[in-house]
Amino acid sequence: MKHDFPELQNDLLLRALNGEKVERPPVWMMRQAGRFLPDYRVLREKYSFFERCETPELVSEITIMPIDQVGTDAAILFSDILVVPQALGYEVQMIAGKGPFLPQTVNNLKDAEAIEVPDVHQKLGYVMDAVTLTRKDLNGKVPLIGFAGAPFTILCYMVQGQGSKDFSQAKAFCHSEKDAAHLLLQKITDTTIAYLNAQIEAGAQAVQIFDSWAGLLSPQDFQEFALPYIKQIVDNISGAPTIVFAKGVWYAIKDLVALGSNAIGVDWALTPQEARKLAGPNITLQGNFDPAWLFAPHDKIERLAKEMVDGFGKDKYIANLGHGILPTVPVENAKVFINAIKNYSA
Question: In whole numbers, what is the pLDDT of the chain averaged over residues?
């Protein structure tokens, strides 16, 4: 369906993703929609997590909060990577103080074979409705980013059934039930391709693939259980630029560059100079401010932000955190970070 959206006023992010020269780097923060904003916490007291995710009006309100309150150059949709397991038929509960919990898990090949790749418009239509409404409500202020979890990260939750420091059960499953693991990864991949293309058709102007747990894999396991499936997704998305963020896989940054996405996200385990040297000069990089640094005094946040941009260079670069913003970050400190990037001069 063709939509009539307001004209985009701030295209810094899209220009950086296209590798164009910019007057300054664009800046946004992973997980900026919600968690650290007091207005979001008011909504959290009134609505359950999935009520917030499944109600387009709430999604739009939460997504736009950081644009109005801290001034980022892009909006990222308020949603969760675990809507995909839901679409695949696996219940997901969000338990206060514990996090996600899946009562049913994938344990063997029979379980994986029983999973049906869904019609994403039928199962996740509420997300696409939220994308379209949010894009209209943004009124062209900044671009809207859609997203999905990478297949290995989704597998971690569907096998382990809950969060974990090492996802050892999920990693063991990849080796003890290899056929089941690859079948599950393929079904997640097929769903994710359709899901991200649907988000783009609904109005997303860029999409990011989050592989939050890829860094738990050895280099050889990353090559087998993560990278080929991310590549399938990148190869089969059309209509908007892509960003791939695989946390902790600095050892595979050249392989990530070779995927052909528009940008690669970098965590704080590498210096900007090291990241650029490994990635080469031709791809846009995104990151890599340690979220913990947002608790530093304001003058130190400003200094570290400037040093980060100095290290990456203002072009082919998107200022961001090295992972999601922490819930207890003071709003004022986030503003200091955003403004330090906006006021950047070499």
Answer: 96
Query: CB neighbours of 167 closer than 8 A, spacing ≥ 6?
Result: 156, 160, 213, 216
10 burial level (CB within 10 Å; 0-12, 13-18, 19+): middle
β-sheet bridge partners, residue 266? 287
Pairing of strands 206-211, 144-149: parallel
Average pLDDT over residues 172-191: 98
Residue 3 pLDDT: 84
Catalytic residue numbers? 31, 35, 44, 80, 157
pLDDT of 53: 95
**What is the Cα–Cα distance from 94 to 277, expressed in whole angstroms?**
40
Q: DSSP labels for 232-270?
A: HHHHT--SS-EEEEETT-GGGHHHHHTT--SEEEE-TTS
- Tokens 């904003």 label which residue? 37
Chain centroid to Cα 280, Å, comes to 23
Q: Which residue has the tokens 């846009």?
A: 284
Closest CA to 338 of 10, 20, 61, 9: 10
Residue 4 has pLDDT above 80, yes or no: yes
Q: Are 345 and 314 in contact (CB under 8 A)?
A: no
- One-letter amino acid at 342 equals K
Residue 93 backbone phi and psi in degrees, to 5: -110, 145
What distances in angstroms separate CA 187 from CA 3, 40, 87, 160, 190, one per listed residue? 30, 34, 11, 17, 5
Going by pLDDT thresholds of 50, 70 and 90, the confidence category of residue 1 is: low
Phi and psi at residue 263, in whole multiples of 5°?
Answer: -150, 155
Query: Per-residue pLDDT tens for 316-343?
Result: 999 999 999 999 999 999 999 999 999 9
pLDDT of residue 158: 98
- pLDDT tens across 22-66, in order? 999 999 999 999 889 999 999 999 999 999 999 999 999 999 999
Burial grade of 202 (CB within 10 A; 0-12, 13-18, 19 or more): buried
In 3D space, the residue among 130, 127, 147 whose CA is nearest the CA of residue 242 turns out to be 147
